[in-house]
Q: What sequence folds into this?
């Protein structure tokens, strides 16, 4: 079953993937930490290019994993992938590098991005030779937390110019430190850091972050990271009724930007709560084809009782379990039957549909039905 392309806007990492180097695909930081034999912060002091790749000389500032010596210089090789499109020389700058041993005493670079990256996306820039002071760590600190601390320190020192690309590749499940950093960012005097922290918290379903973000929406949306911040309104999966009503007011408001309305609609579609229904029904009148489609999807999902659309939930399987003729659930078990009554649900069952409408007349017929159905049965909805 094929669904609207906006289904793919479920947020993994940050709320919009940060692609480094154009055609690059970012690697999970947890995966890099696991694969690397050495992780260090250092400065590129020299580079030599040959037909296959580049050899870097790195002056080591500090070691997060492995046995490299502070103040030493090590050589690291990186072989360009096929069809490599980036530059073939390295800027003399400081960064955080993930290295793998060749087994013969040499090192090769584990790129932070795969595919066809530019060279600068192969490691994470770090602004200072000093160890993090805001996010200090010791030799006994877990390696993933050392790396996260470096990213967070870089973000604070550079006001988001550096560090965010690494933090985007770290999930809450990777370390409890992520949540602490986002809370700190959300309380920062920097609009960039607040936008980042609140955005990640919204994407985690934090109602208090949603309320705070709406109070300073204009400021945060205009920050350099404003588009990413606004996109996080598509990833809210909390079921707090007050938060759902706030998202609904965004979709109702003529002063909200079109992007914000579209992103809020995605969250309303995904939570499948009774509080979302009045707003989804009003969105059936939207001139935007995607918004109408997502509104229909959300209403249908509520009626049949689908789970909240969140990472790790197989929505295809959930829909199949309800509607597949071979093992579908009886209509009496649907969520709408428990809330609005069996008669309302039996009537609705004839118009359950997930997917695209190729015929505008057919879409209009479904929309007319659901608007009428809501008029007939909304009075039964518990307050």
A:
């Amino acid at each position: 079953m094929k669904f609207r392309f906006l289904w793919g806007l479920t947020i993994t990492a940050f709320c919009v993937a940060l692609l480094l180097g154009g055609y690059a695909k970012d690697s999970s930081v947890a995966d890099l930490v696991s694969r690397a034999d050495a992780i260090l912060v250092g400065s590129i002091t020299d580079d030599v290019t040959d037909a296959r790749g580049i050899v870097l000389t790195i002056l080591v500032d500090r070691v997060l994993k492995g046995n490299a010596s502070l103040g030493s210089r090590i050589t690291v090789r990186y072989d360009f992938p096929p069809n490599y499109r980036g530059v073939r020389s390295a800027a003399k700058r400081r960064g955080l590098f993930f290295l793998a041993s060749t087994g013969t005493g040499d090192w090769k670079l584990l790129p932070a991005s795969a595919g066809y990256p530019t060279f600068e996306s192969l490691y994470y820039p770090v602004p200072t030779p000093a160890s993090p002071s805001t996010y200090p760590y010791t030799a006994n600190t877990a390696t993933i937390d050392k790396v996260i601390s470096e990213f967070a320190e870089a973000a604070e020192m550079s006001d988001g110019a550096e560090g965010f690309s690494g933090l985007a590749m770290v999930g809450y499940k990777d370390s409890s430190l992520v949540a602490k950093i986002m809370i700190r960012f959300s309380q920062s005097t920097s609009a960039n850091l607040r936008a980042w922290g609140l955005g990640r918290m919204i994407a985690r379903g934090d109602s208090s972050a949603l309320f705070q973000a709406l109070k300073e929406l204009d400021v945060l949306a205009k920050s350099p990271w404003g588009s990413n911040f606004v996109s996080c309104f598509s990833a809210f999966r909390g079921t707090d009724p007050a938060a759902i009503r706030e998202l609904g007011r965004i979709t109702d408001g003529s002063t909200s930007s079109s992007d914000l309305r579209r992103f809020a609609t995605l969250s309303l579609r995904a939570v499948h709560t009774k509080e979302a229904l009045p707003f989804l029904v009003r969105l059936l009148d939207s001139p935007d084809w995607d918004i109408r489609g997502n509104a229909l999807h959300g209403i249908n999902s509520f009626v049949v009782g689908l789970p909240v659309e969140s990472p790790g939930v197989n929505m295809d399987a959930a829909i199949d379990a309800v509607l597949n003729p071979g093992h579908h659930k009886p209509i009496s078990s649907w969520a709408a039957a428990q809330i609005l009554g069996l008669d309302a649900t039996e009537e609705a069952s004839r118009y359950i549909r997930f997917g695209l409408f190729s015929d505008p007349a057919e879409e209009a017929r479904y929309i007319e039905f659901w608007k009428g159905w809501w008029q007939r049965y909304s009075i039964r909805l518990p307050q």
Notes: The first helix runs from residue 29 to 35. The longest strand covers residues 53-65.
